[in-house]
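Course assignment 3, question 2. Fill in each field.
Student: A.L.
Task: Predict the tertiary structure for the chain below.
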Amino acid sequence: MFVRVQIKKTLSCWRALTPRPYNGVKLIEFNPYQHLVETLELGSDRQALGESFALARDYAKERLGEHQVQQVVENSVARLWHGAGGLYYELKAAPDAFYARLGPVLGEYLSQPDAQMVVWDAVLQTEHQEADVVALYAPDYLERDESVFLSYTLEGTRYERGEPRYAPPLFLRVEGRTESLVMMQLEPTPTRPAGQEYLMFRLPKGQPLLPGLHD
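Answer field:
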């Protein structure tokens, strides 16, 4: 109960919309991280996505839709668009738990052993309290602690829910000090080469151009 009350009171100040320069390129990042955590911790009790963030979500999807060269990948828990215009994902059980990055992104296909190494590194970062991690293992993650691993710091206190598994999750989100990471397990297809079971994006963090936007 303490965790849920704290979330309701404090998450509203987390960064949501930030234009960022990285290597001379201006990026726009829509990151209402509070809704991702609220979805996992509060379930149906979470507040609805604010109108300003809902407009930002629609804007991001529209911008990505302007680029014809894009790919959509999905599994039982998440759906992700990526291409020349950037990256966007949302959770199927809670579409308002989304993330968008408009600007250049570079994805990498991984084998299952490589994906496992990414997960181990993420867990190691949580042990040193160097990153926040969300790992979803099954579509029923809103109802069962066994289907989610959540580790994050809030107001100097570390909170965890569930346990990390040996097998890589269906969806992984890592918020580190210098970069964010998104990794998804891909649905098997007859044309996908062996060793491409996962798709990962490393998203370096820049400096906000307009700090007031995330206050």
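Instructor remarks: The chain is about 25% helix and 35% strand. Confidence is low (pLDDT under 50) at residues 1-25, 209-215.
Grade: pending
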